[in-house]
């Protein structure tokens, strides 16, 4: 079969789970072995396809968490109550199981080490996953420009990559919406515009901005960020949806 | 190793959402206990007082309706099973509304055999006129004893429970009578012109 | 833009990258599309994607007009893109 010289063909590939690591009470990181994985860019995702014994299939997108250039294919999945794919991946899947993946996908919501500008990351819940890939890529490259994370999460138990986030020290701010850790002054609640201003790089430093999380969170943050003077052209967003009934 | 496309790889232990085939349901459907929100665009927010619907005859005569006018027509309680082409069904859903024929009674529908339903936001779907008559279709405004929410098509949606649910246009604001059939939003993307769930008329081909 | 009490439910065109790649043979989320209705030019990743219904609908993020929509059955794909005046696809070097 002749191969197209330039266009990478994106088809389903079989993948073996080689490792399942618990990240929180409701989330796991899954490492996949994909033959001939071409490598990915920080921020990209894969489509994951599950097939039942009777032929029924379900497809969902999941962001890649591992650093670009690491050669690792890792996704982190948080359960959605009653969700058919996330509950399987987090609660039932074990090393040795198989899934199919299509990707890496996306050429817009990506950050490359060649970008010299400062970077502000804004995450809501599991929206931190592709941003962690950016942080890891930035860290292992020893990139000189600042990269900061503002991470909104419901409670301390749901924080993904807690150790790595802690090690980012002043480069990361975690704000809790439902329960704060004991001994913190801030009462739990939604991130306010004033907090976004306080904990992010100023618009005057012209950072690249990446926002990811549930659709409602992303919409709210886009309004706040443009209100703070960030150029909409420099903000890239990824909405994870709002599938559960309001 | 890549999958060949002929034999998909089974994910060990994955069964997916419960998909019990119930003989009381149309083929290929399964029951769900919640009401999934299906959307092809942003949810229009129209208040009852601002809602308007226009009935247009093949000759172009228009009759406008508002919410007060609609509710002055005979209101009926309806219990219906819903069948979505994406394969979920709900049974025994309760609605309150006005039979569509009550709005068509006075208009001159000479030559009309089909109706295009129009919605706020631009959605359209086609239904044969006779399927909207004889107490088989309603304009509904309450669901489970509550005003119909915007998510599910409020203030007023069409309810044609004997056809796939995409025919029950949400946020309906127009009924245009036509002498010839024409495809609406999904019908022009291969979905069936009629859409009978019992005959599994999902697509116009396959 | 959204009304109080109504949760916006769209994703981004980026979320449909896999399905788009199947249609176009390559990743087009970075391709620039121009809206027929309002002339807005944006990356396909920035469109608003509605994926819950019988098919996928991509809308212009500036004016909400339908840019592209498609549906698939077992053997056939129907694709309509009259709302997209043009699309520029640049292949990575
Ligand atoms: C680009 C992109 C990247 C993403 N990356 C990540 C990531 O890195 N990590 C992550 O955790 N998530 C990610 N997501 C979200 C992910 O794709 C899934 O949406 C999420 O895991 C939920 O899928 P599910 O199959 O578990 O839930 P679904 O089965 O889709 O259900 C979602 C909700 O709807 C209800 N529901 C839906 N349909 C029905 C039905 N027919 N009957 C009954 N109930 C129903 C469920 O009960 C549940 O509450 C990403 C999304 C996008 C768009
Ligand atoms: Zn437009």
UniProtKB/TrEMBL annotation, chain B:
Signal peptide: none annotated. Residues 41-186 form the Oxidoreductase molybdopterin-binding domain. It comes from the Bacteria. This is Oxidoreductase molybdopterin-binding domain-containing protein. It comes from uncultured Nocardioides sp.
């Amino acid at each position: 079969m002749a191969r197209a010289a330039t266009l990478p063909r994106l088809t389903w590939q079989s993948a073996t789970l080689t490792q399942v690591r618990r990240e929180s009470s409701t989330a796991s990181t899954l490492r996949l072995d994909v033959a001939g994985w071409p490598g990915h860019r920080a921020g990209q995702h894969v489509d994951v396809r599950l097939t039942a014994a009777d032929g029924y299939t379900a497809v969902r997108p999941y962001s890649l968490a591992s650093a670009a250039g690491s050669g690792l294919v890792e996704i982190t999945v948080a359960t959605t109550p009653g969700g058919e794919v996330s509950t399987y991946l987090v609660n039932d899947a074990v090393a040795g199981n198989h899934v199919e993946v299509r990707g890496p996908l996306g050429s817009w919501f990506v950050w490359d080490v060649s970008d010299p500008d400062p970077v502000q990351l804004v995450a809501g819940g599991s929206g931190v996953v592709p941003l962690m890939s950016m942080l890891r890529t930035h860290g292992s490259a020893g990139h000189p420009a600042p990269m900061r994370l503002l991470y909104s999460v419901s409670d301390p138990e749901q924080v993904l990559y807690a150790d790595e986030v802690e090690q980012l020290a002043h480069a990361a701010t975690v704000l809790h919406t439902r329960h704060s850790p004991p001994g913190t002054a801030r009462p739990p609640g939604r991130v306010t515009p004033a907090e976004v201003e306080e904990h992010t790089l100023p618009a005057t430093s012209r950072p690249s901005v990446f926002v990811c999380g549930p659709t409602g969170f992303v919409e709210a943050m886009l309004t706040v960020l443009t209100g703070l003077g960030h150029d909409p052209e420099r903000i890239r967003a990824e909405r994870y949806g709002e599938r559960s009934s309001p | 190793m890549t999958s060949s496309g002929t034999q998909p790889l089974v994910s060990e232990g994955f069964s997916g959402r419960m998909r019990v085939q119930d003989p009381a349901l149309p083929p290929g459907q399964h029951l769900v206990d919640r009401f999934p929100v299906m959307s092809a665009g942003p949810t229009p927010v129209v208040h009852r007082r601002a809602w308007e619907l226009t009935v247009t005859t093949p000759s172009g005569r228009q009759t406008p309706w508002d919410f007060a006018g609609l509710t002055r027509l005979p209101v009926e309680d309806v219990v219906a099973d819903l069948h979505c082409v994406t394969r979920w069904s709900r049974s025994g859903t309760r609605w309150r509304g006005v039979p569509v024929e009550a709005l068509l009674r006075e208009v001159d529908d000479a030559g009309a055999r089909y109706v295009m339903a129009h919605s706020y936001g631009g959605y359209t779907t086609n239904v044969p006129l006779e399927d909207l008559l004889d107490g088989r279709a309603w304009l509904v405004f309450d669901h489970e004893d509550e005003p119909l929410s915007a998510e599910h098509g409020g203030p007023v949606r069409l309810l044609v429970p004997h056809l796939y649910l995409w025919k029950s246009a949400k946020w309906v604001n127009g009924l245009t009578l036509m002498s010839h059939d024409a495809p609406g939003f999904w019908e022009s993307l291969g979905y069936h012109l009629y859409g009978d769930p019992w005959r599994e008329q999902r697509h116009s081909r396959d | 833009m959204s009304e109080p009490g109504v949760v916006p439910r769209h994703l981004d065109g980026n979320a449909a990258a896999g399905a788009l790649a199947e249609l176009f043979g390559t990743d087009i989320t970075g391709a620039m599309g121009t809206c027929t209705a309002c002339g807005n030019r944006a990356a396909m990743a920035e469109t608003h994607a509605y994926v819950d219904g019988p098919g996928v609908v991509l809308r212009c993020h500036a004016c909400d007009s339908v840019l592209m929509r498609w549906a698939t059955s077992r053997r056939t794909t129907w694709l309509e893109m009259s709302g997209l005046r043009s699309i520029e696809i640049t292949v990575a070097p």
